[in-house]
Amino acid sequence: MLNPLPEKDIGESEFHFDRGEQEIVEHVKRDLGQIEEDKIDIDSDSNSNSNSDSEDEEALRVGNDIKMCCVMEHACLKYAQLDSSLELMQQLHIFHSHLRATAMQTVKQTMLDHFVSRAGHA
């Protein structure tokens, strides 16, 4: 520990940013753009119809409802009196679990090779 070994220079790294934060931001935006392009390519390759679009909209709406339930639960804890908010919190908790069950029914499975290829780029 007193005499640490010198660090080895591995070579050129894709995560070496000479210009600082601005270059990091550009790199992240570029990666996010590639991810969005991949999503568009997947959607355009599949034979999507209005039914799959409505399923996606349903999943998005359920996700927003789950977030709203969490916000309401936190607001009950933060602002309401304990006596008056307990029943509301219980109902929100029940509704939240119902929404999560609904969300699990609309989840689509991702192919493993797509997941592994994205992990290799990260």
TrEMBL record:
Superkingdom of the source species: Eukaryota
Start and end residues of each stretch annotated as Disordered: 35-59
Protein name as annotated: Uncharacterized protein
Protein species of origin: Sphaerobolus stellatus (strain SS14)
